[in-house]
Structure prediction request, 812 residues.
Amino acid sequence: MAQIALERVSFRYEKADEYAIKDISLTINPGEFVVLTGPAGAGKSTMAYCINGVIPHFQRGMMQGDIFLEGQNSKQLTTGSIAKMVGSVFQDPEAQIVCARVDEEIAFGLENLGVPSREITKRIGNVLELVGIEELKYRPTNALSGGQKQRVAIAAVLAMEPTILVLDEPTSELDPFGTSQVIELLHRLNKEKKITIVLVEQKIEEAISFATRLVIMQQGEIVIEGEPAKVLTKDALLKSAGVKLPQLVNLAYRLGLKEDVPLDLLDAEAMVRNYVGR
Amino acid sequence: MSSVASYITRNSLVHNLHPLTKIIGSLWFLTLSIMVSTPIHLMIILAMVIFCGFIARISIEVLKSLKAITVFAIIIFLIQIVFYKWGTVVFYMIPVVNWLPVTMEGIYFGISIGLRMMIILLSFIIFLSTTQTRDMMMVLVEKLKVPYDYAFMFVTSLRFIPTFMSEVKAIQEAQKARGYRLEGANPLKKIKAYVPIALPLVLISLAKGERLALAMETRAYGSGVPRTYLKEWKIEIKDIAAMVLMLSILVLAVYMR
Amino acid sequence: MLIEVEELDYAYEKSSHVLRNINIKIARGEIIAFTGKNGSGKTTLAKHFNGLLKPSSGKVLIDGKDTAKRTVSELAQTVGYVFQNPDHQIFNDTVFDEVAFGPKNQGITGKKLEELVLNSLAAVGLMEDANLYPYRLSKGQRQRLALASVIAMESDIMVLDEPTTGLDYKEGLEIMELLKKLNLKGHTIIFITHDMGLVADYAKRMIVVSEGEIIADNTPRKVFNLDQVIEKAHLKIPAVTQLARILKLSKKTTLNDTELFQEILAAKEANLNVLCS
Prediction:
């Protein structure tokens, strides 16, 4: 059974003239790592909102179609039960930290869910270890770097033990070091904890080798989706959608090897050596 | 600004007291300092406040604030002696024309008022430096029955003060870089001159607020489940001991009057 | 020299040095990238150029004049500064008025003002939007609006703090192409970025800041080859540069996929020749 299913979903924001997403159908299975990309205004964030319950529960607007999470219609689920199923991480590291100290921040969601104090303490210890930020436990949140803030935000939603993580451009305000830390963490959570990842990103270069699926959006519609290696063979479509192609993929196109594009340096090295004939 | 009266992370007896005990403690110092009027007794009470600071292991911070408070108390003292008109005149502020008389009673009264100020301010500073805002919030909500949303809003707005300040700074810099000057305008023009700072600030804060609300809602805020707290405070033996001690000193003070 | 920084030290408080012993000379017409980790001090350094910050010790000379003796608004005539987030500056009701704010502060009025504003809007491609409410624009357009409002001040030097952050690929490219054009027109451009692809494509010189000190100041080609610098500043050099280093097809550092492509073709040809002979 699909873990996430969007069935012919359209959404128009209050006061907007046009639909942000149009008649979208997409199913995501447990344990997938989905990278969703496309130019500004393609409807990527709206897709994230559909999966994390912001649509239809908080965002005003017109929605058509149905969203199913673990087989249940999102409309009929309470916001509390969606929060337990889907963890959400947003773009602005500053505006999603609610509390003054890291351990309190991680406790926040659990307190809202009425988890007993002793259990909260236990889970704080567990997620700090899982994310690898034990040393930040008692730090004031406003003294953290952007990368640390985003990892705290991830830890805080992980404490609620979700099976799905939805991240809306979590690295756009981070430097390369912070970006790598976040992407590597997501890879680990996906591999070791089998958490389904839906990552909305502009810079796909780094995440692409971990992804099981790549979804390209443009003007509220899905242009192409599928295994990254397959999607990346459609050079004409990708270029017209305004997606920044990873450099190594571009190189493959130039060499006329667009059927088998490299996703990381190792692939690329093999490709070139093979091409040169050594 | 932020260094005065903000929480200082330490592990001490005072930090570990129930927040309610500490609220009562500050009010107790306030009551005591009003009941007592002789400088000697007030000195003893002040010594007790300072002693609490030492037990709280924030002696350096307490001494620093004491310095600032003393300056404040001296100003209060000077104002008092000038305006206190009764009693035996000791000397005149302006001797030749016998202007602004200073009386024995005035000095006495001035010292008492100054000491009182010091006790009240310092005890509240110690309370604030040993109690986290969210623990205060817990007491407000659980013991004093303030609605959670209001208490939460208050604590969260404190958390966002540094963010807000850095936004103000960024906006100021952005406008200055475009040749914007605030200095030199007349008061009427000055209000208009704040628009380039105020408008982006309001818009950015609204956007941040919206994003924060989203982050909170997706973490089950307001989901309707009775909430719990990370740290659940219980009245312990040390709290009872502290309250008994405070009560007995209070009784003693009443008796001595 | 248009910009001269001599033994600049900067500290917020006496104890913590944010910048230490900075020496830079920048000539008219250069296009330079400043890079380094977040918190390394690169923005702090850039804010010294328009006098938002003054050195704790040492000197910053802009066009021969000491910034310590001049106000930010005086310096604004020589140094334009585009901040990372355009929303920190937008406050007017129309795009036109937003761009006019800077020149008006410089005392320009009437026909001259109108001409300046319209030319700047044309330069960034926002001519048709002159009467729009700025917040109706997309993020990429707002970034261009911020750029136009600095172009209108006709400053020789332009400093841009992460001009492409938060923009999509096309929007980012538009901004960079604009900078290239401005540079060709004679403006000196300093841009802060984490994107080494942009550095390779647009900068002739790069300055790497780490823990308040300059640890490299050279062409991107040279700096991409300095392993210690790359590691210390956590720079993410372009994937093709990394690949070229693994393949070792040529002795020089490769900057972009065109260069690597040609190296690969050359290698293939050489290989064929070996096989034939």
